[in-house]
Amino acid sequence: MAKHSKKYREAAERIDRNNLYTPEEAIALLKSMPSYNFDQTVEAVLRLNVDPRKADQLVRGSVNLPNGTGKTAKVLVFARGPKATEALEAGADIVGDDDLVEQVANGFLDFDSVVATPDMMGKVGRLGRVLGPRGLMPNPKTGTVTMDVTKAVKDIKGGKVDFRVDKNGNLSFLFGKLSFTAEALDENFRAIADEVKRLKPSTVKGRYITKATITATMDPGVPVDPASI
C-alpha cells in the first residue's frame, strides 16, 4: 500500500466520502487544504457514458478558458515559408517543416501543443504514433490544423484547452491553478463542462456524465455530483 504524506492524509480527512459535492464546493474544499511551496494545477476527470470505439461517440473538442490556465504553453508549429514566419511572429516557440517532423519522429517532445498547416499534414500524419497517445496530434476539429496559424497560436497561448475522451470513457482536463480565485476556477470548469455537454453524442441514452472528480496536483480527488455539472 502506498504511503501518503502527512499533508495528503490531512487533506483526505477533510473529504466526506459519503457525500457528492457541487463543483463550487469541491473547489472551495481544495483551496482550504494544506498548502505546498508551489502553485498546484487544478484538474477534473469526467466519466462519460460513451463507447469511444464508435466514431460518433469519440468526444473531443477545445475551449478558450475565460481566465486562462495559469500556464504559458510551449507551442510547436509545422509550417513552411510565409506561414512559418507568421507563426513565429504570433509567438510560436518552435517552427519548422520536414526537418522538424524528423526530429519529433526521433523522440523530440519538448512542447505542450502542436499546430500544423494543411499542406504539412501529409508528413505530420506519420507522427500519429508519437503524438496521438499524448493528445498532441493536430486536428481540424480543435483548430490546430489551419492556415490561420496566428489565431491558433494566440488561442493556445491565451488559455485554450483541448480535451478528448480516452478508451475507457474518461475525459480529463486542467482548468487553472490553485492560486486562482474560487470564482475564476468555477468559471473555467463550467466553460469546459458546458462544451462537453454540448458535444453529447445523439446516440447516447441515459445519463451522459456518470462520475466526476476535481483534484489538485498533490491533493486527493474530491467526488463531484454529476447532476450538479
TrEMBL record:
Keywords: Repressor, Ribonucleoprotein, Ribosomal protein, RNA-binding, rRNA-binding, Translation regulation, tRNA-binding. CDD domains: Ribosomal_L1 (cd00403). One of its GO terms (molecular function) is structural constituent of ribosome. One of its GO terms (cellular component) is large ribosomal subunit. InterPro entries: Ribosom_uL1_bac-type (IPR005878), Ribosomal_uL1 (IPR002143), Ribosomal_uL1-like (IPR023674), Ribosomal_uL1/biogenesis (IPR028364), Ribosomal_uL1_3-a/b-sand (IPR016095), Ribosomal_uL1_CS (IPR023673). GO terms for biological process: regulation of translation; translation. Part of the 50S ribosomal subunit. PANTHER family: 54S RIBOSOMAL PROTEIN L1, MITOCHONDRIAL (PTHR36427), LARGE RIBOSOMAL SUBUNIT PROTEIN UL1M (PTHR36427:SF3). Belongs to the universal ribosomal protein uL1 family. This is Large ribosomal subunit protein uL1. The lineage of its organism: Bacteria, Bacillati, Actinomycetota, Actinomycetes, Bifidobacteriales.
